[in-house]
Design goal:
The chain has helices at residues 32-43, 62-65, 71-81, 105-124, 155-165, 181-186, 235-253, 279-296, 309-323, 334-340, 355-375, and strands spanning 10-13, 52-55, 130-133, 170-174, 193-200, 224-229, 257-261, 299-302. The protein is of the alpha/beta class and 382 residues long. The structure holds zinc ion. Zinc ion (ZN) binds at residues 176-178, 263, 265, 304-305. Residues 176-178, 263, 265, 304-305 line the site of zinc ion.
């Protein structure tokens, strides 16, 4: 188990049904990304590891979904899913290019939420040290009353509600390129969930939130932490920001569980965003989270955004190997290589920005970190 010197007991929660999650034919969230990921994990031998088990999810119940969402909104999604037209769907953020409506959307979303719930149940019960549900996390923009940014029902909020109900304190770390706004909103007034989101600044990217000044309200004051970064921030500067903020706050918070959203749309080839991480930069973050998890003892991980198929398959395969404490060879197995043309897990790093732009990036990020030092650190005695 985690921290004992033995290999962690890892659960991988997934079913092929989840790669049928097609929002619309032209939507950037292409379901095949999860199919590629699973094929690469299998070809890399991860499913044969003795300390890894594969489990199927169950659909979330309506009562579980309603811990995070208004019953009126849940009813609308359910009706649309069964063929209703729902002329007022726009009021709930539905029927937009980001959140198209379709038959069966309630059931596939409830199953997606169920992956995070099963992962959480396994970890809470001590049946796994780490559980990874890669189809979850992508709903991190979904709000109590409406859909947003591909998100319909917020699996992370729902799963963490269950943990809080069980009396646990949860540290949530969201490394997706977009601000985890729906998760922040879902626990904004709670001191039992610390949310930390490191992302491209809302000044340039959807959803336009995630500023340092959004620190929480009431009992949650100080427990909402945002690390907005400049576009084109690369591995080194991303990690400098992560290192300064994340480990110290998590240790000071003393959570019972670590819950991470592992979006990989921070990748330099991602078509929707502008950060510049490599697959190895991403995996280094997963290694640092694994090290924190080894101190805490319980770790639930969900997926998230990621719209470059190669980056998604490689990064989440690397992440699962890290969770299982398995050293993955850098060479992509030939059975996968022949289909994809990919040869290495690690990227050749992108060119650095010109020095004058690098200066601007560093100045922006250093303003962010100074604001965090003055607004957040004192609450944690740092
Ligand atoms: Zn994203």
């Amino acid at each position: 188990m985690i921290g004992s010197g033995l290999k962690p007991n890892v659960a991988f929660v997934y079913t092929d049904e989840l790669s049928q999650y097609q929002l619309s034919p032209e939507h950037p969230l292409r379901p095949i990304r999860l199919e590629h990921m699973q094929n690469l994990m299998r070809a890399s031998g991860l499913f044969d590891l003795p300390n890894l088990s594969r489990l199927a999810p169950r659909p979330a119940t309506r009562a579980e979904i309603e811990t995070a969402h208004d019953p009126e909104y849940v009813s609308i999604v359910h009706a649309i899913s069964q063929g209703a037209i729902a002329p007022d769907r726009g009021k709930f953020g539905l029927g937009t290019p980001d959140n198209p409506t379709r038959l069966g959307m309630y059931d596939t979303t409830a199953l997606c939420v169920g992956t995070a719930l099963v992962a959480s149940e396994l970890v809470i019960a001590g049946n796994a040290d780490v559980a990874f549900a890669p189809a979850g996390g992508v709903h991190h923009h979904a709000m109590r009353h409406h859909a947003s940014g591909f998100g319909v029902f917020n699996d992370a909020v729902i799963a963490m509600n269950m943990m809080v109900e069980a009396g646990l304190r949860v540290a949530y770390v969201d490394i997706d390129c977009h601000h985890g706004g729906g998760v922040q909103a879902g626990h904004y007034d709670s001191g039992r969930v610390l949310t930390i989101s490191i992302h491209e600044s809302g000044q340039w990217l959807f959803p336009g939130t995630g500023y340092v000044q959004e620190t929480g309200t009431g009992d949650g004051a100080g427990y909402s932490v945002n690390i907005p970064l400049a576009p084109y921030t690369g591995d080194e500067d991303w990690h400098a920001a992560f290192d300064l903020v994340v480990p110290g706050l998590i240790r000071a918070f003393e959570p019972d569980v670590l819950f991470t959203q592992l979006g990989i749309d921070t990748h330099f080839q991602d078509p929707l965003t502008h950060l510049s991480l490599t697959t190895q930069g991403f995996n280094l973050a997963v290694q640092k989270l694994a090290s924190l998890a080894s101190e805490i003892g319980k770790w639930v991980a969900v997926g998230g955004g990621g719209y470059d198929l190669s980056a998604v398959a490689r990064s989440w395969t690397m992440a699962l190997a890290t969770m299982a404490d398995y050293e993955l060879p850098d060479v992509v197995p030939s059975s996968f290589n022949s289909l994809s043309g990919l040869t290495r897990f690690h990227d050749t790093a992108p060119l650095s920005p010109e020095p004058r732009y690098l200066d601007e990036i560093r100045q922006f990020n250093s303003r962010t970190l100074n604001e965090i030092r003055s607004l957040i650190f004192p609450k944690f005695g740092l």
